[in-house]
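Sample entry was shown:

___
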Amino acid sequence: MLRKVVSIAGKAGLYSLVSQGKNMLIVESLADGKRIPAYARDKVMSLGDIAIYTTGDDMPLGEVLDKVYAFTDAKTVDLKSFGNDKEMRDYFAQILPEYDSERVYNNDIRKLFSWYNILLGAGFTKFTQELQSAEETAEAEAKE
């Protein structure tokens, strides 16, 4: 499912891929359900293609979101509760202690928590499982 959720550079929020046209995608906002076109010139990134730098292998975003979900007991992350960036990094280090603090920037962590809150509000609960089931469906369709 995360493969069908996209982020568009320059636009706030997350979008669900609805349809594909010539030189554009039709996406729907997860926040308010409004549909907009995303053109070929827009930088569109699928959440299924994003990973977080760690001291070992990079960790897919779905796995990180599952860790956040487990750590917060399925509650949203209050970004305003962090007094400064160090508090936010310390909180993130409790969730993912092996993250690479030199290559993961404060904005990356803030965006991750913001995306987590949006996805949680849209009804997502098992991020890795939903990603794997979407990949398995795509593979099954390709074989037919």
